[in-house]
Specification:
Blueprint lengths: L10 H33 L1 H37 L3 H35 L5 H14 L3 H16 L3 H24 L9 H25 L15 H33 L3 H13 L1 H23 L3 H28 L1 H6 L5 H14 L6 H13 L3 H14 L1 H12 L1 H32 L18
């Protein structure tokens, strides 16, 4: 098998080889997010606020697609490690079938709920109208986004990170190019405003999906989409969903967090909602590259787990943690040294820049310690332990931070909301470290015995 290098090469070299293409593509993706928001903010501050309010629903689509993709990735990686080619092909084929279904279903649901959802957070008719105009276009591309994500996770599962990098970067660059062209009407194109931003996003995703298909056809990979395997296999679907559902919930939780914090911050003024939206755009520059490391780690840790290389699993986790720490350190320095410059990318209003600078100064105190939670959650997903990973994310995005932000907002005002971020990260880091090591030790001790599952399905039970 061509993937045997995953259990043979030195860990650091292998992890860098797998992660660096994804880190680069995630940095470009982060740049796309910043540029997209930069051009939308040039329309008006209300347009940027509308984008912030739409973001939780948009993130829900991302969460389902990416989360299920993580399930596909983990199952394929495990079967490749266990040298079961047929099951790996079945997982890829079933993943494409289900991904298409998810895209259609989510498109319909989001188009139906977006108007009442926006009305929950603002009475400003202009903001609601801008949000509807943006979302009604961007949601129409949900199926293309689903196809892009399935291809991405399959290519990553077989170690083709360079192709993933090329496809992701190409889609982002298309989006970046089209943003000013379609928003402001450059050359022969009409000025579409916020609809242009939505169209640029959808066309960028579609371009990535088409590019993946071209690569699949001209440079075949070891895992194949086979028509015979498109008929639903409920046992295999269950295995992918046992990882994909917790992973989707992990990624959907930030939407719940942002919506909850928007309610709290709206009581202090619309500018604070704007600042929260800007923060979540800026933090993509940090967490998306970190996610690039995690994406490189998942197939490695899953493959070595399937091949019963337990000492390499531990080393992969430790090395990934160090790389994520390095990324978080860079973000902390930037937010401490130039917070005003970062906020100024989105607004020229002095009062808003001052509010945003203060928020970044406080929130960034939790960046370094969040490395433990990010790495532990990603490693557990790679090992097929979806439920423990979900517990970490619940602590990080709902169970601790939401009540803490509400309580501290009563005691300290709006600054209490910002302090809730780093306090939550510190508490969750302790919890996640304990959960990861406890679950991994338990799996190793029971490796020689048939797995016993209670409420979840681990990949150790796939054989």
């Amino acid at each position: 098998m061509e993937q045997t290098y995953m259990k043979e090469q030195p860990i650091l070299n292998l992890l860098l080889k797998m992660s660096l293409p994804m880190v680069v593509s995630m940095l470009v993706n982060s740049l796309y997010n910043i540029v997209d928001s930069f051009f939308v903010a040039k329309i008006s501050e209300n347009a940027m606020t509308a984008l912030s309010l739409v973001f939780p629903v948009q993130n829900l689509i991302n969460a389902v697609m990416i989360g299920f993709g993580i399930g596909i990735n983990a199952v394929i990686s495990f079967y490749l490690g266990a040298a079961d080619q047929k099951k790996a092909d079945q997982a890829a084929s079933q993943g494409m079938l289900l991904g298409t279904f998810h895209g259609i279903l989510l498109m319909i649901i989001c188009l139906v709920v977006i108007h009442p959802f926006l009305s929950l957070f603002t009475n400003d008719a202009e903001i609601v109208n801008l949000g509807l105009r943006y979302s009604k276009i961007v949601f129409l591309f949900s199926v293309f986004f689903a196809w892009e994500l399935v291809f991405e996770k399959v290519f990553q599962a077989v170690g083709k990170m360079n192709i993933s990098m090329i496809c992701l970067m190409s889609g982002c660059l298309v989006n970046i190019f089209l943003d000013p062209v379609l928003i402001f009407g450059l050359g022969p194109f009409p000025s579409l405003g916020i609809e242009g931003a939505a169209l640029a996003t959808g066309l960028g995703q579609t371009f990535s999906a088409i590019l993946y298909l071209i690569f699949y056809m001209v440079a075949p990979i070891s895992v194949k989409f086979r028509r015979a395997y498109f008929k639903p296999d409920f046992a295999l679907c269950k295995k992918m969903y046992s990882i994909g559902i917790p992973a989707s919930l992990n990624m959907a939780l930030p939407s719940l967090l942002i919506s909850s914090l928007n309610v709290i911050l709206a009581g202090f003024g619309q500018s604070y909602v704007f600042v929260l939206g800007v923060y979540y755009k800026l933090q993509t520059f940090l967490y998306l590259p970190a996610n690039g490391v995690i994406q490189g780690m998942r197939p490695l840790i899953g493959y070595n787990y399937g091949a019963k290389e337990h000492s390499r699993v531990n080393k992969i986790y430790q090395t990934s943690l160090i790389l994520v720490l390095a990324i978080m350190a860079v973000g902390t320095v930037l937010c401490l040294c130039i917070p005003g410059t970062l906020i100024h990318l989105f607004t020229a209003t002095p009062a808003t820049i001052k509010i945003g600078s203060s928020a970044l100064h406080i929130i960034c105190l939790g960046f370094l310690v969040s490395s433990v939670s990010v790495t532990s959650s990603g490693a557990l997903e790679g090992l097929g332990m979806g439920l423990p990973s979900l517990i970490i994310s619940l602590c990080r995005y709902t169970l601790i931070i939401i009540p803490l932000a509400f309580l501290l907002s009563l005691l300290q005002g709006v600054s209490g909301v910002w302090h809730a971020f780093w306090i939550t990260e510190a508490i969750t880091a302790i919890i996640s470290y304990w959960i990861y090591h406890r679950k991994v030790r338990a799996e190793y001790y029971s490796a020689a015995e048939p797995p016993v599952r209670c409420g979840e399905s681990h990949l150790s039970g796939l054989t």
